[in-house]
Amino acid sequence: MYIRNAELTLSDPMFFYSLPIHVGMLNVVIADAELELIPGGEMLDDYQVRKYAKKRKKPAAEVLLDSNFLHGAIERHFPGGSTRMGRPDIFYILLQVLQESILNKRGGLLRVYIHTKHNKVIHIAPQTRVPKSYNRFVGLMEDLFKKQEIQSGQEKLLTLKDADLFSLLDDLGKEVVLLSPRGGRPSKPEDIIREDMSLVIGGFAEGDFQTDVYSRYSAHSIFPDELTIWSVASEIVVRYECMFGPL
Amino acid sequence: MYIRNAELTLSDPMFFYSLPIHVGMLNVVIADAELELIPGGEMLDDYQVRKYAKKRKKPAAEVLLDSNFLHGAIERHFPGGSTRMGRPDIFYILLQVLQESILNKRGGLLRVYIHTKHNKVIHIAPQTRVPKSYNRFVGLMEDLFKKQEIQSGQEKLLTLKDADLFSLLDDLGKEVVLLSPRGGRPSKPEDIIREDMSLVIGGFAEGDFQTDVYSRYSAHSIFPDELTIWSVASEIVVRYECMFGPL
User: Taking the model in full, what pTM does it have?
Assistant: First the structure.
C-alpha cells in the first residue's frame, strides 16, 4: 500500500482529492499514435502543405500533420496513408474525455500517456485541461513538439520525451492489458480491469500496431465491432471508477 | 415488457443487436442547448460576422453561432454573453461520445435529443455517426437548421422540430431525472439511474436552465464540482450499460 499521488504537495488542490490510501492506479497508454509533425523531405514543399502552414503562420516543419486539412498532400506523398495518418482530432476528443472524467478530477487515479509512432511519449498531467477549441489544441501540440514541454506557472502540464512503448510500459511497472482489434472473443471489461494496471489502446483509426506488441502481451477486446479510442477509454475509466474509485 | 426498437426492420443491421426483450431505454435529453444560428438583426452586419460567413461561403443568417470564432462579435451584441453563447464544440464532443458508445452501438438502448434555447428539438438517430472533422460537424448542423432534416438514403439521421422541453419530455413519457448545478449533495449515479428514463442535462457551459425546470422536477447532481456535459453523459451511459445493458 502507498499513498497515491505522493508527488503532490499540500498546496496542490488535487491533494485533497487524493487523501484516501489506495493500492493502485490506472495508466491509460495510447500506443503508436498517429500524431506527428509534417514529415520532412519533399512533403514540406507540397503546395497544399505550404498553403496550410502559411494559414497557421508557422514553418511547415513545425505544423502538425492533420488529414482533415491535408488529405490530398498525404496521398501524394504516402499513397494510401490518408485513412490512417495525421489524426490529431482523435486525441483531442480522447483527452477531452479522459481529463474531464470523474476518475481524473476526483480520484486522481488516472494517468495518461500518448506514445507516438515515432517513439515520442507525451505525459499529460492530471490537472491539464484541453483547450475547448480544436484549433487551439492543435497549436498546443505544435508548441509541445517544438519546446518538449508546456508549463503553467510551476506546473508541467505536458511533457514530451523520447521512449519506445516497451520502455514506457516497463518504467510504469504495472500489469499491462493490451486492447487490440486482434483481441478475438470480447471479454467483459470487468474481467480485464485490474486495480493497478497499464491499459494499452492503439492510437490509430485503422490497421494494427507498429510496435510488435503481440510478442510481449496477449490481446484482449471488449466489443466485437470497431470502437473509437475515446469509447474504449471511457468504458474502462468509468468501470474502473465503479470498481475501485471514490464514488 | 415490449420488444425494444420495434420500429426497426429485419433489414436494418441494428435489428440483430436489439433482439433481446428489454423493459426500458435511456433517453439523454440536452436542455436549453446553446446551439443556434447567428441571431438576426444588427449582429448579421457585424464586420467579424460578415468575414466569418464569407469564409464559410454562406449567408450570415445560415451560419452557426460559434464563440470559438465570433467571441468579439458576441460581446459587441450580447455583452457578457460570450462565456455561454455559441458552443457547437460541446455538442460535437458530446455526440462523438454518445453515438460511439457501446450502449448505442450494441444495445440500441440509447436515444439522444438536443433541445435548444429557442425551443427547437434535434433528434439524433442511433445509426448517426458524427463527422470526424469539427468544421464538417458545424456544416452539418447548418444544413440541419436550413432543411429541418438530414437523410442518408431512406434513413433520417437528424431531424429538427419545434417543441419546448416539457412537451418533449411528456412525449417521451418516461420518468425524468434532472441533473443540475443546483442539485446539491451528489447522489451515487446508481441511485438515480432508472431502467426506463429520460435524463436531462443542461446544454450550456455556464449558468443555469432557461426553462423553469425546477417547477416540475427536483434537481440531482453526481459530482460536487463542475463536469462537462460529455463527462456527465458518459458516466451515466456506461453505468446504465453496466446495470441494464447487454454487456
Answer: 0.89
